[in-house]
Design goal:
The protein is of the alpha+beta class. Among the domains are: 217 residues, Histidine kinase-like ATPase, C-terminal domain (Heat Shock Protein 90, 2-Layer Sandwich), CATH 3.30.565; 176 residues, Ribosomal Protein S5, domain 2 (2-Layer Sandwich), CATH 3.30.230. Helices cover 36% and strands 20% of the residues. Strands 2, 3, 5, 6, 7, 8, 9, 10 and 11 form a nine-stranded mixed β-sheet that branches. A five-stranded mixed β-sheet has the order 12-13-16-14-15, with helices on both faces. A hairpin with a 7-residue loop joins strand 12 and strand 13.
């Protein structure tokens, strides 16, 4: 064991900055206030305990879901959070960790070689978003305790027991009902995630007590990821094409990184890769997963070339090589850099090379030592390639006639929904990649699709059909909707029965919305006639008056809300924020105000029967090539413009 275990004191806790108002924007730290965000609090506490185990200081973690189903205690037998006085902050190191963002012992690799926690962010965020948090630390033969509420200490650190045996940390927390949509924990989800952590740490034992169900589960898998692989094959009902899984481990390198990988080819129609960094799941993959895929491709190609197993004139793609793979990769590294606070994707550029170099040669050598396995894998790859060449084109033709044909030939920027029922599916056509990113995070993936557009689209009123069809942004819209356009438009092939235009609440946003409406009117008018087209109403202002939050669509709406607030309390202090664009909104805010069907405001685009001639004339005048009509309109209405938004 490292001598660092004896020198882990308050002086090791480095403070980078004060605690930001986590409660004001929780989505920045936990990804949202729904079910995943609620459970993310638990994973932050558990991951800190797992870090102790991964670095050799703990062997057991106990997680207790209390009878109310809304509060949890996590206990580990690690070293215990330092409680001595911090040399700079002049208060207990425990209090510094729990009340200061970016304070922790993980910045110094002598204390933690590898870490999955947020370098001190996790503990303080859990504290800030809990109505009650009680932490107990066993250290120095004593038990210390301190209580918090919403990130604020309610008691001083005090000794509650003398002559305590062992060391470790116990943390009880109750998530704040003012923050989360629901504070009811899901015991089945918790159990599944906890068991996975014991697969990734073979020496770790986790006990999960579910007091609401009077149930106790104990997880301990000395076989590590090899056991996890067997569990995955069983749960996926996957039939392997070779008997033994391939297990590759590279011990710690000079930079402290190490990697372990298990993989097995099966008859599944697609790959299944579960990737982790320091025991933390990375469902969106990242550079370590890219390195694994690169290594597999290179090793299999080299093996098939060496043994002359490639049929002539048969093109083998990387997808053919990986088809049917079930694999687990767990990378340990000193300084993982994740995309987003919730750590769902690894961004370290060097991780790709570390994993690729560690796996490629080992995998190729393994296949050379086990020719039966190598030949079985080669046969599986050839089968996948032949199937792709011979039948996938035909399969696409068949699938076009089915309800799931909408999954083919879709634009790359489209973040599609999982539902294949057009009646419940809706698509948001969004202005810009930035706003599209927020919308993708805030949407309901089951039935909400997002298509971001770049810049102002072509004015369809002034362009010939060929130019309209050649325009990439408008072409993406047509492909995403799937129903064709013009005289070939078929409403029964429309993939979404809500086509929602979501633009910034400013003049540029209104212009883009008008351009899209012009295109839909000219080339896809049945969508408007049948009531499938809507305009989203994102707020331009946020007003906070005490604990109440109001959203205003525009200046007049803002003034009405202000008047209502002042009428209720003339001394009320109102904080106002003006959004420069959708991309400035946090995903949780965009969801609350604009995406959530229960809270959003939509305008359905309709053309009343008595207004069809007037509509035709207006679009022709304002969007057509003849500028004189627009000039006359501007001059006739200039007196009515109070404020020009530029």
């Amino acid at each position: 064991m490292s001598t660092a275990s004896n020198s882990y004191t308050g002086a090791d806790i480095q403070v980078l900055e004060g605690l930001d108002p986590v409660r004001k924007r929780p989505g920045m730290y936990i990804g949202g206030t729904g079910k995943p965000g609620l459970h993310h609090l638990l994973w932050e506490v558990v991951d800190n305990a797992v870090d102790e185990a991964t670095n050799g200081y703990a062997t057991q973690i106990e997680v207790i879901l209390h009878a109310d189903g809304r509060s949890i205690t996590v206990v580990d037998n690690g070293r215990g959070i330092p409680v001595d006085r911090h040399p700079i902050k002049k208060k207990p190191a425990l209090e510094v960790i729990l009340t200061t963002l970016h304070a922790g012992g993980k910045f110094d690799s002598s204390n933690y070689i590898t870490s999955g926690g947020l370098h001190g962010v996790g503990a303080s965020v859990v504290n800030a978003l809990s109505s009650e948090l009680v932490v107990q630390v066993k250290r120095n033969n004593k038990t210390y305790e301190q209580t918090y509420s919403r990130g604020i200490p309610q008691t001083k650190l005090k000794v509650v027991a003398q002559n305590s045996r062992g060391t470790g940390t116990s943390m009880f927390f109750r998530p704040d009902t003012d923050i989360f949509e629901s504070v009811d924990f899901d015991p089945d989800w918790i159990a599944e995630k906890l068991e996975i952590k014991t697969y990734l740490n073979g020496s770790l034992r986790i006990i999960f007590r579910d007091e609401a169900r009077d149930a106790r589960h104990e997880y301990h898998h000395e076989g590590g990821i090899a056991e996890y692989e067997a569990h995955l094959l069983e749960s996926l009902n996957a039939r392997p094409v070779h008997d033994e899984p391939i297990l590759v481990r590279q011990e710690a390198q000079a930079d402290g990184s190490r990697v372990e990988i298990v993989l097995q080819w099966t008859e599944l129609p697609r790959e299944q890769i579960r990737s982790f960094v320091n025991g933390i799941p990375t469902p969106d993959g990242g550079t370590h997963e890219a390195g694994l895929k690169e290594a597999i491709r290179s090793a299999i190609r080299a093996y098939m070339d060496t043994h002359d197993l490639l049929p002539k004139k048969l093109e083998i793609s990387a997808e053919d090589i990986r088809e049917g793979i079930v694999s687990v990769i767990n990378l340990f590294m000193v300084d993982p850099q994740f995309q987003g606070q919730t750590k769902e994707k690894l961004n370290n550029p060097g991780a790709r090379g570390v994993v690729s170099s560690a796996i490629r040669l080992e995998l190729e050598q393994y296949l050379n030592r086990h020719p039966t396995t190598g030949e079985a894998i080669a046969a599986r790859v050839i089968q996948a390639a032949r199937a792709r060449h011979a039948s996938r084109a035909a399969a696409r033709t068949v699938r076009r006639a089915t309800s799931i044909s909408h999954r083919l030939n879709l634009p790359g920027k489209l973040a599609d929904c999982s539902s294949t029922d057009p009646g419940e599916s809706e698509i948001f056509i969004v202005e810009g990649d930035s706003a599209g990113g927020s919308a993708k995070q805030g949407r309901d993936r089951r039935n909400q699709a997002i298509l971001p557009l770049r810049g102002k689209v072509l004015n369809a009123e002034q362009a010939p059909l060929k130019k309209v069809l050649d325009n990439k942004e408008l072409s993406n819209v047509v492909q995403a909707l799937g129903c064709g356009l013009g005289e070939h438009l078929a409403l029964d092939k429309l993939r979404y029965h809500k086509v929602i235009l979501l633009m910034d609440a400013d003049s540029d946003g209104h212009h883009i919305c008008t351009l899209l409406l012009t295109f839909l009117y000219r080339y896809m008018r049945p969508l408007i006639d049948e009531g499938f087209v809507y305009i989203a109403q994102p707020p331009l202002f946020r007003l906070d008056a005490g604990k109440d939050t109001f959203w205003a669509l525009d200046e007049s709406d803002r003034d009405r809300i202000m008047a209502r607030i002042k009428k209720k309390n003339k001394n009320a202090k109102v904080e106002m924020q003006r959004f420069k664009g959708l991309g400035e909104m946090m995903p949780a805010t965009l969801k609350e105000t604009t995406l959530d069907p229960d809270r959003r405001r939509l305008l359905r685009v309709t053309i009343p029967d008595g207004m069809r001639v007037e509509t035709e004339r207006t679009i022709s005048d304002l969007m057509g090539k003849d500028a004189s009509a627009r000039y006359a309109f501007i001059m006739n209405n200039a007196a009515d413009v109070d404020e020009l938004d530029v």
